[in-house]
Amino acid sequence: MSSSYLQLEGIRKSFGSFQALSDIRLSIERGEFVCFLGPSGCGKTTLLRIIAGLEMQTSGRIEQAGRDISVLPPAERDYGIVFQSYALFPNLTVADNVAYGLVNRRQPKREIAQRVDELLKLVGLPGSGIKYPAQLSGGQQQRIALARALATKPGLLLLDEPLSALDALERVRLRQEIRSLQLKLGVTTIMVTHDQEEALSVADRIVVMNHGVIEQVGTPLQVYSEPATAFVADFIGKVNRLVAVADGSGMLHCGHLRLPWPAGWGAELPSGAAITLYMRPEDRVVEGLCDEHQHQCVGTVRRVDFLGGNCLAEMSVEGLADQPMHLQFSLNQMHDLGVREGATLRFALRADRLRAFVPAAA
Known about the structure:
362 residues; alpha+beta; 5-stranded antiparallel β-sheet; 32% strand
């Protein structure tokens, strides 16, 4: 095993004939904030529960801080956990909820009271100890659940979709507070989420999962800009998928466009072989175009989706037949370039940003 704080080796989990996790191998460093990200049913919550000892893996080994915890019960593992549903005791005050783990460890009452006061200040709810959970908002209840999870000073903090029950503004506010708190305390943290924006904004590294396997592990910038698989390219952010054909001379034909092989791509495909190109909506040039710009296109705006600070325009592009493109524009660009339904726009593709994957059926 390595010197990482948390090491997973060959974790598998079966439920009857269903394989929920397949050979999961992952190292997490001390103090890291790692997000397990993926669609519903991908295995991310099952993996978190196995780390917590709430589920037992079918096979594989887990080591935390140099200690083999593979078969230890939850009570003998060093972690705090926060669930989506808050899981607070409604009949206990806020102070008693936060103190629950400390009372079970039979710590002196005076030390417990000091720790509770310290934690309530830490999560921004000083003086709320005498209240009951029902008197608090959802965001406040989740802050109390976080304080309870941190009460025993665990080495590992596990967050199981802790923000999904909150409204949009409260989610953004609380995720920022969780990240700030994690950095302040230096606690190693794993958060399960299906929200891409959430993972991209708070994680040091993201573990992208699908159908019980890890598709990619990387920084937010890496998984967004350098997807390792077609699934990651499709799942993270918005993307254009364009079918191209190899011409046998080191170039790709996508409609009337001749494009170079994407950076990092391996051996060239034989002439006539199909390949799928992935391009982010922002990877285009629309201002200051001149005749020297390569990979130029002319398109008509079919539809404009307003997204707040920017918009996404669906383009029907000349020479690309039935392959529409989506391009992203800021509000200023919308105004300056006249981006509206029916408008004709000239733009150039950023060929250096293209990613390529052989279609699954090829």
